[in-house]
Amino acid sequence: MLRWQDDLYLPACSLYLDSRRPRPFCFVSHAHSDHLPQDGAHERVISTAQTLVLANHRLGKLSIAAPTAESVQSIDPDTRISLLPAGHVLGSAMIRVERPEGSLLYTGDFKLRPSLTVATAEPTPADILVMESTYGLSMFRFPPWQQTHARLVELVGAALAEGRQPIVLGYSLGKAQEIVRILTDNGLRVTCHGAVAAINEIYESLGTPLGAFRRYRPEDFHGPTSLDLAERGVLVAPPQVARSAFVNRFSSPLTILMSGWGMQKNARYRYGVDEVLPLSDHADFGELLELVERVSPRKVYTHHGYAEFAETLRARGIDAELARPEAQMRLF
Ligand SMILES: [Zn+2]
């Protein structure tokens, strides 16, 4: 039902899962670039409509007419395919495959916590679970999300009161939109870097409102026509700008990176920012364990992330291993 063929592959329906190479037929779980083909386009894909729009925006080359899950079913009457929300970024999905010999759930990237901008994940029980394990070490237990949101609003408010430019950093697809919603929901004025604003506009066109935000224009922030701090408000930008001229043009910026890696010691120094708050669009360690419990599989394959997580599961009596070539999968 599942094998490793340079990538995760379901031979029964000739379907690759999140391959980074162009394939004849591939499931694309979401539009982050590490889940998209790097040098060409898949011929046919299964994905949600939102993922297709976002992937086309990011790559400009995933230009395919996606078959729906229903049409895949009609290709093979023995295979039932369904997509379930993954709670990661807009459009992210898990794929569930049911065959006469059993069921399989592949998560892609996911989280179980609720989000302001993404539908909550809805995993279902399956015989085989193929899951990401990005934060698969016990040190990655995030504090309650309400606490992180409140701390962000507090830091931004304090910076504005001191006349410092707050700059909140998060990946331009997914994280940045969640940040924008936290800030606008709390009545803050928000300006977005162009890369973020472009994705914001797609989110809004797909029915996910983010509140009022302004697109960054250099003249609003620097020079004789610049707006005052209260009017331009907090800036939201991708993490890459942390050490760039974009940030260095401000005399006293306060940079805040929103990332699960903020649980690591010295994260501020590693990322070259003033603060790191643990806001993630991935499951933390507790959610990874919770997923396994909810899916209740006979077998778990971990993919992406810490190898130790498969060991953690085995220590708890769960049949688990890495989904990698040397672990040649033989299922059913
Ligand atoms: Zn992702």
Written account of the structure:
With 332 residues, the protein is an alpha/beta fold. The chain folds into 2 domains: 3-139 and 282-327, Ribonuclease Z/Hydroxyacylglutathione hydrolase-like (Metallo-beta-lactamase, Chain A); 145-277, Rossmann fold, CATH 3.40.50.10890. It is built from 11 helices and 17 strands. Strands 6-7-8-9-16-17 form a 6-stranded mixed beta sheet. A 6-stranded parallel beta sheet has the order 12-11-13-10-14-15. A 5-stranded mixed beta sheet has the order 1-2-3-4-5, with no helix packed on it. Helix 5 (194-205) links the parallel strand 11 (190-192) and strand 12. The chain is globular. The termini are close together. Residues 327-332 have low confidence and may be disordered. Zinc ion binds next to loops. It comes from Humisphaera borealis. GO terms for molecular function: RNA endonuclease activity. Residues 273-317 form the Zn-dependent metallo-hydrolase RNA specificity domain.
Topology:
Layout: E1 3-4, E2 8-10, E3 15-17, E4 25-27, E5 44-46, H1 49-59, H2 69-75, E6 80-85, E7 93-99, E8 102-106, E9 128-133, H3 145-161, E10 165-169, H4 175-185, E11 190-192, H5 194-205, E12 214-215, H6 218-221, H7 229-232, E13 234-237, H8 245-248, E14 253-258, H9 267-271, E15 275-277, H10 285-295, E16 299-305, H11 308-315, E17 320-322
Parallel strand pairs: 3-4, 4-5, 8-9, 9-16, 10-13, 10-14, 11-12, 11-13, 14-15, 16-17
Antiparallel strand pairs: 1-2, 2-3, 6-7, 7-8
Offer a quick outline of the entry.
By secondary structure, the chain is of the alpha/beta class.
